[in-house]
Amino acid sequence: MTSLHTNPFFARLADAERVLVAGAGGGFDIYSGLPLALSLLHQGKEVRLANLSFSMLDGLPVDDWAAPDLAAVTPGSAPHQSYFPERTLAQWLHRHGYPSTVYAFPQTGVQPLRDAYRALTELHRIDAVVLVDGGTDILLRGDEAGLGTPEEDLTSVAALAGLDGVPTRLVASVGFGVDAYHGVNHVQVLENIAALERDGAYLGAFSIPRATREGALYLDAVAHAQQATPQRPSIVNGSIAAAVSGSFGDVRFTDRTRGSELFVNPLMSLYFTFELPGLAARCLYLDRIEETYLMRQVHARIAEFREGVTTRPSRGFPH
Fold this sequence. Notes:
- With 319 residues, the protein is α/β, with parallel strands linked by helices.
- It has a single domain (13-209, 268-308), classed as Rossmann fold (3-Layer(aba) Sandwich), CATH 3.40.50.
- It is 37% helix and 16% strand.
- The protein has 12 helices and 9 strands.
- The protein has helices at residues 8-12, 29-32, 34-42, 85-95, 110-123, 150-161, 186-199, 213-228, 235-244, 276-281, 286-289, 295-308, and strands at residues 18-23, 46-52, 65-67, 70-73, 102-105, 128-134, 168-174, 202-207, 270-275.
- It is globular, with a radius of gyration of 18 Å.
- InterPro entries: DUF1152.
- This is DUF1152 domain-containing protein.
């Protein structure tokens, strides 16, 4: 048991020497874990970064593949691609003097992704993994009114839940409220967090203050990514960065949100943290996606599950 002044999440990582911080849901998700990764680096730990990728990895040369389904992206990778979040992050890391390789997993089913995670953790002798979701759909168990976009997130959870040899596996969710656009009911998210607390899997919450070194660097990294990818900037990380900066309400930082109303607020800058095995145990369909090899199989099996489940009705916040 820790004391109130001790952060339980970082306490779980205190003895880890080599930590992997990985984005669960593709796109710019790894940016959501950047403040955590920087904090661990500043503590003197060896930190590796990885991301389930939406980028076109097939065109990378053979030398860029560390193992099957595991690409090692550097600042100079695929210069012809305009959308490549992993390369954009590698360039920012290099500019600031940090280790600049970002590993990328192609979109696959659970079995190949687990093999890729195993190869990466064995390559760098990883003793702790932090899986990060920009948003909250990773916290949904399957019977909620809406699931958002769970396929990539829960494929990552399932892959790591069955990964032997890594003693510490954690989940961090940041961007509370941003998934409302995808139909997530955040009262049900809070209900799930309460259940995870009862199970002993919830490690508490903490914010990303912009007055910290890591908070300031995160804002700089998001701004750099927005400039590097003007046609497809990250709405999730743009919202989180706006919240970290103290913005509130319907904040406009990209034309991609035209026609929708954002609700940027301080809760978006909070990390909610969990033990990954406990989170995985509450997912009602994780066993159904276990033997998948393709992402389309994951989509199909979640859809089949949803057809037969009784969903909990959506609930509103009390006024």
